[in-house]
From TrEMBL:
Annotated source species: Nonomuraea ferruginea
Signal peptide bounds: none
InterPro entries for this protein: AraC_XylS_family_regulators (IPR050204), HTH_AraC (IPR018060)
Tree of life domain: Bacteria
Annotated keywords: DNA-binding, Transcription, Transcription regulation
Pfam family name, one: HTH_18
Start and end residues of each stretch annotated as Disordered: 275-294
Protein name: Helix-turn-helix domain-containing protein
């Protein structure tokens, strides 16, 4: 059984993030040090990333649960996990790494299904997982840990061929448009048929372009709700037909009502741990140019 602890008291959690110079494209990291011995039970809200959670705690560690499937320790969580909870007790540390689907496909390859899964890291990386954890535990600072992870992931990114540039471009356009983009239009932009784009996108990223757009749009709406915006205004700004449409989509992705998502502890720390998730960020600030697809 999962523990019946409370959501975390973020005042008892130290959060560390890498220096801008240490970041990898499509990958973001944050370190969490929970100082309180109280039990914690937190529901995690879906976002447009594959997540690697490296448990650096002593003792029993963290338990993750998706629809009754439980894993303890370090795990990889695919897109659209549904009802996903994390529980634990005592002082502990965790390194969370978020991969945009394009980066996840390059780092994990075909070793993991990118949607709706919960997999132990050792089942994905084998002995490399234990070696990585040992290095991270021995590190004397979060900066050192971030450097170790950047080296590991950089090697993995170089070891596998990237996804098709047309697929990567489609993902970036979906992300920077906050999910408000038509698949037909994207197919025209990359010079592919709609059928070909749909097939390649699904096979390489584990999700259809339409579902990806819905997930990105939900993520933007969830952060607007968490920032205290009214549901009706969020629906209009995020591109939903009306407030009822927003309610249905939030229920689909999070299993919660918009009111519950607005108060979700999982989102309460985002401005600190994942500043790029701020609802006020502008796609124009991304700074990335579209690749030459010809």
């Amino acid at each position: 059984m999962l523990s019946t602890g409370a959501p975390p008291d973020w005042a008892q959690v130290e959060v560390a993030v890498p220096r801008p110079s240490g970041r990898l494209p499509g990958i973001s990291m944050a370190g969490f040090h929970h100082r309180s011995p109280a039990p914690v039970d937190i529901a995690m809200v879906a976002h447009p990333s594959v997540t690697l959670l490296v448990d650096l705690s002593d003792g029993e560690g963290i338990v993750y649960d998706i629809h009754g499937r439980r894993e303890r320790g370090s795990v990889v969580v695919g897109l659209l996990p549904g009802d996903f909870r994390a529980t634990g007790r005592g002082v502990g540390q965790c390194l969370q790494i978020r991969f945009e689907p394009v980066a996840a496909a390059a780092v994990f390859g075909a070793s993991i299904e990118l949607t709706g899964t919960l997999v132990a890291l050792e089942d994905v990386w084998g002995r490399d997982a234990e070696q990585a954890e040992d290095k991270l535990r021995a590190a004397s600072s979060w900066d050192e840990r971030f450097t170790i992870v950047a080296d590991i992931l950089g090697w993995r990114l170089r070891a596998r061929p990237p996804v098709h540039p047309e697929v990567a471009y489609t993902w970036r356009r979906t992300l920077t448009s906050r999910g408000r983009v038509r698949v037909d239009g994207l197919a025209d932009e990359v010079g592919w048929s709609r059928k070909r784009l749909w097939s390649r996108f699904r096979s390489q990223l584990g999700i259809t372009p339409k579902r990806a757009a819905q997930l990105v749009r939900f993520d933007h709406a969830a952060h607007l709700l968490a920032a205290g915006n009214a549901a009706a205004g969020v629906a209009a700004e995020s591109g939903y037909v009306d407030q009822s449409h927003l309610h249905r989509e939030v229920k689909t992705f999070a299993g919660l009502t918009p009111t519950a998502v607005a108060a979700a502890p999982w989102l309460a720390i985002d401005d600190v741990a994942w500043p790029a998730s701020s609802p006020n960020r502008s796609p124009a600030k991304n700074g990335e140019r579209s690749p030459d697809l010809r």
